[in-house]
Amino acid sequence: MRMFLFFPLILLLLFYAWRRFRYVFPKKYRRIGAFLFVFGFAASFLYRLFRSDSIIATLAIIGSLCLVFLANWVVFCVLWDLYLGIRRLLGKRKLANKRLRMRKEPLLASGVAALTLAFFLIGGPLHSNFLMLTIKETLHTAPKKTLRIALFADIHFDALFQKSKLEKIVDSLRVLRPDAIFFAGDLADIPQEKLRERGYDSLFKQINAPLGFYAATGNHESFMNPNGRTIEWLQSFDNVMLLLDSTVCNDFFCVTGRLDHQYAKRHSAKGRTPLSELMPENNSVPWFLIDHQPKGLDAGDTNLTRKPDFAFSGHTHAGQFFPITILIKLIWHLSYGLGELGGIPWYVTSGIGQWGPPVRIGSKTELVLFIF
Questions:
Q1: Are 64 and 42 in contact (CB under 8 A)?
Q2: Domain tally, the chain
Q3: Could you list the residue range(s) of the whole structural domain that residue 178 is in?
Q4: Predicted confidence (pLDDT) per residue in 99-133, tens digit
Protein backbone atom coordinates (compact mmCIF):
# COMPACT_ATOMS: atom_id res chain seq x y z
CA MET A 1 0.00 0.00 0.00
CA ARG A 2 2.83 2.37 0.86
CA MET A 3 4.55 1.76 -2.50
CA PHE A 4 1.18 2.18 -4.29
CA LEU A 5 0.90 5.70 -2.85
CA PHE A 6 4.57 6.52 -3.46
CA PHE A 7 4.54 7.00 -7.25
CA PRO A 8 1.42 9.26 -7.41
CA LEU A 9 3.01 11.34 -4.64
CA ILE A 10 6.26 11.68 -6.60
CA LEU A 11 4.36 12.73 -9.77
CA LEU A 12 2.39 15.27 -7.76
CA LEU A 13 5.57 16.71 -6.24
CA LEU A 14 7.23 16.92 -9.66
CA PHE A 15 4.24 18.79 -11.09
CA TYR A 16 4.24 21.13 -8.09
CA ALA A 17 7.99 21.76 -8.41
CA TRP A 18 7.66 22.41 -12.15
CA ARG A 19 4.82 24.88 -11.64
CA ARG A 20 6.84 26.80 -9.09
CA PHE A 21 10.07 26.62 -11.07
CA ARG A 22 8.50 28.35 -14.08
CA TYR A 23 8.23 31.59 -12.11
CA VAL A 24 11.97 31.75 -11.60
CA PHE A 25 12.22 33.03 -15.18
CA PRO A 26 10.66 36.07 -16.84
CA LYS A 27 7.42 35.25 -18.64
CA LYS A 28 8.93 35.00 -22.14
CA TYR A 29 11.55 32.47 -20.96
CA ARG A 30 9.22 30.21 -18.99
CA ARG A 31 9.00 27.52 -21.67
CA ILE A 32 12.78 27.37 -21.86
CA GLY A 33 12.95 27.19 -18.07
CA ALA A 34 10.39 24.39 -18.00
CA PHE A 35 12.41 22.49 -20.61
CA LEU A 36 15.61 22.90 -18.60
CA PHE A 37 13.82 21.64 -15.51
CA VAL A 38 12.57 18.49 -17.28
CA PHE A 39 15.87 17.85 -19.07
CA GLY A 40 17.91 18.22 -15.90
CA PHE A 41 15.74 15.71 -14.07
CA ALA A 42 15.80 13.28 -17.02
CA ALA A 43 19.59 13.47 -17.46
CA SER A 44 20.11 10.93 -14.67
CA PHE A 45 18.29 8.37 -16.79
CA LEU A 46 19.27 9.50 -20.30
CA TYR A 47 22.99 8.83 -19.88
CA ARG A 48 22.37 5.07 -20.19
CA LEU A 49 21.46 5.63 -23.87
CA PHE A 50 24.96 6.79 -24.83
CA ARG A 51 28.30 5.00 -25.25
CA SER A 52 30.69 7.95 -25.08
CA ASP A 53 32.27 8.22 -21.63
CA SER A 54 32.42 12.03 -21.83
CA ILE A 55 28.70 12.34 -22.71
CA ILE A 56 27.77 9.80 -20.04
CA ALA A 57 29.77 11.62 -17.35
CA THR A 58 28.41 15.05 -18.37
CA LEU A 59 24.79 13.91 -18.26
CA ALA A 60 25.35 12.06 -14.99
CA ILE A 61 26.80 15.22 -13.38
CA ILE A 62 23.94 17.39 -14.68
CA GLY A 63 21.39 14.85 -13.52
CA SER A 64 22.99 14.57 -10.08
CA LEU A 65 22.98 18.32 -9.55
CA CYS A 66 19.38 18.62 -10.69
CA LEU A 67 18.13 15.77 -8.52
CA VAL A 68 19.61 17.31 -5.37
CA PHE A 69 18.33 20.74 -6.40
CA LEU A 70 14.85 19.33 -7.09
CA ALA A 71 14.60 17.59 -3.71
CA ASN A 72 15.50 20.77 -1.84
CA TRP A 73 13.44 22.99 -4.16
CA VAL A 74 10.28 21.08 -3.24
CA VAL A 75 11.01 21.49 0.48
CA PHE A 76 11.71 25.21 0.18
CA CYS A 77 8.62 25.83 -1.97
CA VAL A 78 6.38 23.99 0.47
CA LEU A 79 7.81 26.00 3.37
CA TRP A 80 7.49 29.24 1.38
CA ASP A 81 3.85 28.53 0.52
CA LEU A 82 3.11 27.70 4.16
CA TYR A 83 4.69 31.00 5.17
CA LEU A 84 2.58 32.90 2.65
CA GLY A 85 -0.54 31.07 3.76
CA ILE A 86 0.05 31.86 7.43
CA ARG A 87 0.72 35.54 6.62
CA ARG A 88 -2.51 35.67 4.67
CA LEU A 89 -4.53 34.02 7.43
CA LEU A 90 -3.14 36.48 9.95
CA GLY A 91 -4.20 39.34 7.71
CA LYS A 92 -0.80 40.96 7.87
CA ARG A 93 -0.43 41.19 4.13
CA LYS A 94 -2.49 40.58 1.03
CA LEU A 95 -0.64 37.84 -0.74
CA ALA A 96 -3.24 36.69 -3.24
CA ASN A 97 -1.57 38.68 -6.02
CA LYS A 98 0.55 36.24 -8.04
CA ARG A 99 3.09 38.87 -9.02
CA LEU A 100 3.74 39.58 -5.35
CA ARG A 101 3.79 35.86 -4.50
CA MET A 102 6.35 35.05 -7.18
CA ARG A 103 8.62 38.05 -6.75
CA LYS A 104 10.79 36.16 -4.27
CA GLU A 105 11.12 33.01 -6.38
CA PRO A 106 14.40 33.89 -8.19
CA LEU A 107 16.03 34.69 -4.85
CA LEU A 108 14.63 31.43 -3.44
CA ALA A 109 16.03 29.47 -6.38
CA SER A 110 19.46 31.05 -5.86
CA GLY A 111 19.40 29.96 -2.23
CA VAL A 112 18.48 26.40 -3.18
CA ALA A 113 21.26 26.38 -5.78
CA ALA A 114 23.75 27.43 -3.10
CA LEU A 115 22.40 24.70 -0.80
CA THR A 116 22.79 22.15 -3.60
CA LEU A 117 26.45 23.09 -3.98
CA ALA A 118 26.90 22.76 -0.20
CA PHE A 119 25.33 19.28 -0.34
CA PHE A 120 27.98 18.16 -2.80
CA LEU A 121 30.85 19.78 -0.90
CA ILE A 122 29.77 18.16 2.38
CA GLY A 123 27.96 15.03 1.20
CA GLY A 124 30.49 14.03 -1.46
CA PRO A 125 33.24 13.10 1.04
CA LEU A 126 30.65 11.43 3.30
CA HIS A 127 29.68 9.25 0.35
CA SER A 128 33.22 8.37 -0.66
CA ASN A 129 34.50 7.54 2.82
CA PHE A 130 32.30 4.63 3.87
CA LEU A 131 32.07 3.59 7.51
CA MET A 132 32.98 0.14 8.80
CA LEU A 133 30.46 -0.99 11.41
CA THR A 134 30.65 -4.01 13.71
CA ILE A 135 27.40 -5.55 14.97
CA LYS A 136 27.24 -8.45 17.45
CA GLU A 137 24.12 -10.61 17.35
CA THR A 138 22.93 -13.87 18.90
CA LEU A 139 21.23 -16.39 16.59
CA HIS A 140 18.33 -18.70 17.45
CA THR A 141 20.36 -21.60 16.06
CA ALA A 142 23.69 -21.45 17.80
CA PRO A 143 26.66 -21.66 15.39
CA LYS A 144 29.42 -24.21 15.92
CA LYS A 145 31.88 -21.35 16.14
CA THR A 146 31.77 -17.57 16.18
CA LEU A 147 30.88 -16.43 12.66
CA ARG A 148 32.25 -13.22 11.17
CA ILE A 149 30.16 -12.21 8.16
CA ALA A 150 30.74 -9.05 6.12
CA LEU A 151 27.80 -7.41 4.35
CA PHE A 152 27.69 -4.79 1.63
CA ALA A 153 25.11 -3.87 -1.00
CA ASP A 154 24.16 -1.33 -3.66
CA ILE A 155 27.55 -0.68 -5.22
CA HIS A 156 25.88 0.82 -8.30
CA PHE A 157 28.91 1.02 -10.54
CA ASP A 158 28.06 3.96 -12.78
CA ALA A 159 29.62 6.88 -14.64
CA LEU A 160 30.53 8.67 -11.40
CA PHE A 161 31.78 5.69 -9.40
CA GLN A 162 35.47 5.99 -8.50
CA LYS A 163 37.71 2.95 -8.95
CA SER A 164 39.61 3.99 -5.83
CA LYS A 165 36.49 3.28 -3.79
CA LEU A 166 36.38 -0.35 -4.97
CA GLU A 167 40.07 -0.64 -4.13
CA LYS A 168 39.27 0.60 -0.62
CA ILE A 169 36.41 -1.92 -0.31
CA VAL A 170 38.73 -4.77 -1.29
CA ASP A 171 41.42 -3.60 1.17
CA SER A 172 38.87 -3.19 3.98
CA LEU A 173 37.53 -6.71 3.48
CA ARG A 174 41.07 -8.02 3.61
CA VAL A 175 41.63 -6.23 6.93
CA LEU A 176 38.32 -7.41 8.43
CA ARG A 177 39.12 -11.07 7.63
CA PRO A 178 35.48 -12.26 7.60
CA ASP A 179 34.58 -15.96 7.47
CA ALA A 180 32.06 -15.18 4.72
CA ILE A 181 30.99 -12.21 2.61
CA PHE A 182 27.40 -11.40 1.55
CA PHE A 183 26.48 -8.99 -1.25
CA ALA A 184 22.80 -7.99 -1.21
CA GLY A 185 22.33 -6.86 -4.82
CA ASP A 186 22.40 -3.82 -7.14
CA LEU A 187 25.79 -4.19 -8.74
CA ALA A 188 25.93 -1.79 -11.68
CA ASP A 189 24.16 0.73 -13.89
CA ILE A 190 26.65 0.40 -16.73
CA PRO A 191 27.07 -2.62 -19.07
CA GLN A 192 29.64 -5.31 -18.45
CA GLU A 193 32.01 -4.07 -21.17
CA LYS A 194 32.34 -0.80 -19.23
CA LEU A 195 33.00 -2.78 -16.05
CA ARG A 196 35.86 -4.56 -17.81
CA GLU A 197 37.23 -1.37 -19.39
CA ARG A 198 37.52 0.24 -15.98
CA GLY A 199 39.38 -2.68 -14.46
CA TYR A 200 36.73 -3.75 -11.97
CA ASP A 201 37.26 -7.41 -12.93
CA SER A 202 40.71 -7.72 -11.40
CA LEU A 203 39.56 -6.05 -8.18
CA PHE A 204 36.38 -8.10 -7.81
CA LYS A 205 38.42 -11.29 -8.17
CA GLN A 206 40.29 -10.34 -4.99
CA ILE A 207 37.17 -10.47 -2.81
CA ASN A 208 37.45 -13.79 -0.97
CA ALA A 209 36.58 -15.39 2.34
CA PRO A 210 37.26 -18.91 3.73
CA LEU A 211 33.54 -19.86 3.77
CA GLY A 212 32.65 -18.11 0.55
CA PHE A 213 31.49 -14.90 -1.15
CA TYR A 214 27.72 -15.04 -1.83
CA ALA A 215 25.66 -12.61 -3.90
CA ALA A 216 21.97 -12.07 -4.64
CA THR A 217 20.25 -10.08 -7.37
CA GLY A 218 18.87 -6.57 -6.99
CA ASN A 219 16.28 -4.66 -8.97
CA HIS A 220 19.04 -3.00 -11.01
CA GLU A 221 20.15 -6.42 -12.21
CA SER A 222 16.71 -6.51 -13.80
CA PHE A 223 17.20 -3.08 -15.39
CA MET A 224 20.61 -4.01 -16.80
CA ASN A 225 19.63 -7.42 -18.21
CA PRO A 226 19.62 -8.62 -20.92
CA ASN A 227 21.38 -5.57 -22.44
CA GLY A 228 23.78 -4.92 -19.58
CA ARG A 229 24.31 -8.58 -18.66
CA THR A 230 25.65 -7.80 -15.20
CA ILE A 231 24.38 -11.22 -14.10
CA GLU A 232 26.78 -12.87 -16.54
CA TRP A 233 29.56 -10.60 -15.29
CA LEU A 234 29.01 -11.81 -11.73
CA GLN A 235 28.76 -15.43 -12.81
CA SER A 236 32.10 -15.18 -14.61
CA PHE A 237 33.99 -15.05 -11.29
CA ASP A 238 35.08 -18.28 -9.62
CA ASN A 239 35.15 -16.55 -6.22
CA VAL A 240 31.47 -15.43 -6.35
CA MET A 241 28.50 -17.72 -5.79
CA LEU A 242 25.41 -16.02 -7.23
CA LEU A 243 22.29 -17.37 -5.53
CA LEU A 244 19.25 -17.23 -7.81
CA ASP A 245 16.46 -18.49 -5.57
CA SER A 246 18.78 -21.16 -4.25
CA THR A 247 20.30 -22.35 -0.99
CA VAL A 248 23.79 -23.62 -0.26
CA CYS A 249 25.20 -25.04 2.95
CA ASN A 250 28.61 -25.63 4.48
CA ASP A 251 29.68 -27.03 7.84
CA PHE A 252 28.85 -23.78 9.65
CA PHE A 253 25.78 -22.19 8.03
CA CYS A 254 23.26 -22.29 5.18
CA VAL A 255 22.47 -19.22 3.07
CA THR A 256 19.59 -18.55 0.69
CA GLY A 257 19.70 -15.85 -1.96
CA ARG A 258 16.30 -14.85 -3.30
CA LEU A 259 15.57 -13.37 -6.71
CA ASP A 260 14.76 -9.70 -6.41
CA HIS A 261 11.03 -9.03 -6.77
CA GLN A 262 11.42 -6.98 -9.97
CA TYR A 263 13.99 -9.37 -11.43
CA ALA A 264 11.62 -12.30 -10.84
CA LYS A 265 8.74 -10.49 -12.56
CA ARG A 266 10.79 -9.76 -15.67
CA HIS A 267 12.96 -12.84 -15.97
CA SER A 268 11.23 -15.72 -14.22
CA ALA A 269 8.07 -17.28 -15.63
CA LYS A 270 7.07 -18.74 -12.26
CA GLY A 271 8.09 -15.73 -10.15
CA ARG A 272 9.91 -16.14 -6.85
CA THR A 273 10.29 -19.63 -5.47
CA PRO A 274 8.38 -20.03 -2.17
CA LEU A 275 10.75 -19.90 0.77
CA SER A 276 9.40 -23.25 1.98
CA GLU A 277 11.02 -24.86 -1.07
CA LEU A 278 14.35 -23.21 -0.27
CA MET A 279 14.58 -24.33 3.35
CA PRO A 280 17.82 -26.19 4.07
CA GLU A 281 17.68 -29.80 5.17
CA ASN A 282 20.40 -29.21 7.74
CA ASN A 283 18.71 -27.75 10.84
CA SER A 284 21.79 -27.92 13.04
CA VAL A 285 23.45 -24.79 11.57
CA PRO A 286 22.21 -21.18 11.26
CA TRP A 287 20.20 -20.26 8.16
CA PHE A 288 20.83 -16.84 6.59
CA LEU A 289 18.66 -15.08 4.00
CA ILE A 290 19.79 -12.47 1.46
CA ASP A 291 16.84 -10.60 -0.08
CA HIS A 292 17.57 -7.29 -1.77
CA GLN A 293 14.33 -5.46 -0.96
CA PRO A 294 13.29 -5.50 2.72
CA LYS A 295 9.69 -6.56 2.13
CA GLY A 296 9.77 -9.48 4.54
CA LEU A 297 8.06 -12.76 3.73
CA ASP A 298 5.97 -13.14 0.57
CA ALA A 299 2.29 -14.07 0.69
CA GLY A 300 3.26 -17.52 -0.58
CA ASP A 301 5.87 -18.08 2.11
CA THR A 302 3.66 -20.36 4.17
CA ASN A 303 4.16 -23.82 5.65
CA LEU A 304 7.57 -22.85 6.99
CA THR A 305 8.69 -25.37 9.57
CA ARG A 306 11.65 -23.09 10.22
CA LYS A 307 12.37 -19.42 9.60
CA PRO A 308 15.77 -17.97 8.71
CA ASP A 309 17.87 -17.07 11.73
CA PHE A 310 18.83 -13.74 10.20
CA ALA A 311 18.11 -11.81 6.98
CA PHE A 312 20.00 -9.11 5.07
CA SER A 313 18.73 -6.47 2.62
CA GLY A 314 19.78 -3.25 0.92
CA HIS A 315 17.86 -1.26 -1.71
CA THR A 316 16.68 1.71 0.37
CA HIS A 317 20.04 3.54 0.69
CA ALA A 318 18.42 4.87 3.91
CA GLY A 319 17.16 7.65 1.66
CA GLN A 320 20.71 8.67 0.69
CA PHE A 321 20.25 12.42 1.10
CA PHE A 322 17.81 14.84 2.73
CA PRO A 323 14.83 15.18 2.34
CA ILE A 324 14.52 11.67 0.84
CA THR A 325 15.94 10.33 4.12
CA ILE A 326 12.62 11.34 5.68
CA LEU A 327 10.41 10.18 2.81
CA ILE A 328 12.01 6.71 2.73
CA LYS A 329 10.87 6.05 6.31
CA LEU A 330 7.26 6.56 5.21
CA ILE A 331 7.64 4.02 2.40
CA TRP A 332 9.38 1.13 4.16
CA HIS A 333 8.49 -0.45 7.50
CA LEU A 334 12.24 -1.07 7.98
CA SER A 335 14.28 1.38 5.94
CA TYR A 336 17.61 1.07 7.72
CA GLY A 337 19.32 -0.83 10.51
CA LEU A 338 18.27 -3.70 12.74
CA GLY A 339 14.65 -4.71 13.02
CA GLU A 340 12.24 -7.56 12.46
CA LEU A 341 10.18 -8.49 9.40
CA GLY A 342 7.84 -11.47 9.36
CA GLY A 343 9.20 -12.65 12.69
CA ILE A 344 12.76 -12.76 11.30
CA PRO A 345 15.64 -10.63 12.68
CA TRP A 346 16.50 -8.40 9.72
CA TYR A 347 19.20 -5.89 8.86
CA VAL A 348 18.83 -3.29 6.10
CA THR A 349 22.11 -1.73 5.05
CA SER A 350 22.29 1.82 3.71
CA GLY A 351 24.57 0.56 0.94
CA ILE A 352 28.12 1.31 -0.03
CA GLY A 353 27.46 3.10 -3.33
CA GLN A 354 24.89 5.49 -4.74
CA TRP A 355 22.09 5.76 -7.21
CA GLY A 356 22.24 9.13 -8.92
CA PRO A 357 24.06 11.83 -6.96
CA PRO A 358 27.26 10.65 -5.20
CA VAL A 359 26.07 12.47 -2.09
CA ARG A 360 25.17 11.45 1.46
CA ILE A 361 23.37 13.90 3.72
CA GLY A 362 21.51 12.34 6.64
CA SER A 363 22.69 8.81 5.77
CA LYS A 364 26.00 6.99 5.40
CA THR A 365 27.72 4.49 3.17
CA GLU A 366 28.77 1.42 5.08
CA LEU A 367 30.51 -1.92 5.14
CA VAL A 368 29.13 -4.02 8.01
CA LEU A 369 30.82 -6.84 9.89
CA PHE A 370 28.43 -9.10 11.82
CA ILE A 371 29.75 -11.26 14.63
CA PHE A 372 27.31 -14.08 15.38
A1: no
A2: 2
A3: 129-371
A4: 445 556 677 778 888 898 999 999 988 888 999 99
